[in-house]
Dynein light chain (Colius striatus), 106 residues
Amino acid sequence: MADTGEGKKEEADYKRLHSFPLIRHTDMPEEMRVETMELCVTACEKYATNNESAAKMIKEMMDKKFGSSWHVVIGEGFGFEITHEVKNLLYMFFGGSLAVCVWKCS
């Protein structure tokens, strides 16, 4: 029983240490980057068990705020190669291993 409690404590410590957003790559202007990052964190926290709903929320909000043709991928362990408009890409991690890629292309 002690091992189970200890394992949960270590997992909680890991999640607390890695609960901040970590930007891997972006070419967005500062203001857009901050807004997008906050939106991604909010969506991932609100839909912690449903990446599809989180991605839909991010896409719809980005389309409203910055015009249409935004795309969002959320998940773990994926690679990507995309074409995007200049100054419209954000690739970040949240909660340790959850990756979020947001980009615009028309």
